[in-house]
Amino acid sequence: MVTPTIGPSIPLALISMLLFFLKGGCIIVDSTRKGKRFPDSMSKTIPIWTCVLNRAILNYRNKMLDSGLLMNREVADYSNYAEDVKLKNHIWDCSLHLPLWVPDTEKAAIEERIEKWTNQLEASGADIACISSCLKKPLRPLWISQKTVIWLNEVPDHNQWDFTPIILVSASSSSEVFRNKTTSEFSWNYIPGAGDDEESWARGLTPSHFWSHVHDLISSGPDLCNQKVADIVEKDRVYRAHRGEYAPQVTVKNLKMADGVADVSNVELLLASNMHGDDTTLQPSNDYCTTFWIGSTNLVVGTTKHAALMSNVDCILNCDKEPVSINLPDSEAHLHLPMVSSKLDRFSLFNNLPAAVNFAKLNLRKAHRLLVCCRSGEDISVCICLAILTSLFDDKGTFDDGRSFSATCITKLEMRRRLVFVCKFAITARPSRGNLKQVFGFLTGGSAASA
């Protein structure tokens, strides 16, 4: 049985849902190993989460109704909602919807734990009220695979459904054919679970780049797609380099396979530095805001490329591999601790956490505003901020120099609550599981390996 973890996936899931609920639902794409049509994330984990969220929303609405605080507009679609308590569960579907191939015994075991997981979600500090105000119909998963047959004329408009669809699309093939050879220069290998390792296949293309050029990329076809990506990434690199920003070239090593065809995951792609073109054609990457104040804690999470531009901070903790030129009046107000992802070094974060927290303590004692930054501003810096917040602040977000931390036994649930607090403000945060394990090992006095 797959047990859902109430960790970094919560804020991301909630933010994604808030974005898509206004559109009437969302589509999630994943893949799995050969011989399976759907990954466990779609067969069990996501259905569990939809059920847990539905129950948490129902509990919140019932509590508000009982106290007379729920606004009528939140239940406008359900005119009889408050008339009969017994009708509530029928109006808002809280049942567990699993695919038919999940055994009944496993379904029963999952149902026994739903209430516990719902309580954990409610205790984590997640903003259930915000989701309740946006979600007008309960969540329900639907499964689509390569063998699914859909008669479009029999599919009603989503406005006619009595639930908000979470459409789970499996990109896996149940056959053993995993290589798709085309007439293009490249072929591709199917790598299960590589969807979230974009550094291994995205060739430097960011989400903002993709959505800015989505029509050009799709229309270019398999023969020209790689070159189109290279052009987009290089134009953005040149644009940033001309403005003095950190803009390294993207290189991927070249490996030839036995049949003489290059493996796309290892194709050498040295983005041309001598590309010609008028500077007026170069467009910025249109990245969204990458600097976030964590409530009133004097902590800021951001990217290293914006660190030099921050004029409203007193000290900076740089967790990027590369140093950054920073102009601060006090030389001791800047600390550079080079760190890498847990995929590259399992103990990089863990080994640097004592120095990072000590630096934060010295500056926060003086009520200084501290910027914690890394290359992306989404992973390492968020984990460092989580460690600082847990070590030096109480559960209400007030700096107490570590007194509450000394008197508290930090559990995973407590750390998750702090993480949810951080992610309420740092909305782009996506800390990796490996880095979170290192933070938990540090907070509990253990090791990163045993966390």
From TrEMBL:
Record field: transmembrane: 6-29
InterPro entries (UniProt xref): Prot-tyrosine_phosphatase-like (IPR029021), Rit1 (IPR007306), Rit1_DUSP-like (IPR033421), Rit1_N (IPR033449)
GO biological process terms held by the UniProt record: charged-tRNA amino acid modification
Keywords, ordered alphabetically: Membrane, Transmembrane, Transmembrane helix
GO molecular function: tRNA adenosine(64)-2'-O-ribosylphosphate transferase activity
GO cellular component, one term: cytoplasm
Coiled-coil residue spans: none
Domain Rit1 DUSP-like span(s) in chain numbering: 334-443
Domain of life from the UniProt record: Eukaryota
Domain called Rit1 N-terminal: residue spans: 23-234
PANTHER family: TRNA A64-2'-O-RIBOSYLPHOSPHATE TRANSFERASE
Protein name, as recorded: Initiator tRNA phosphoribosyl transferase family protein
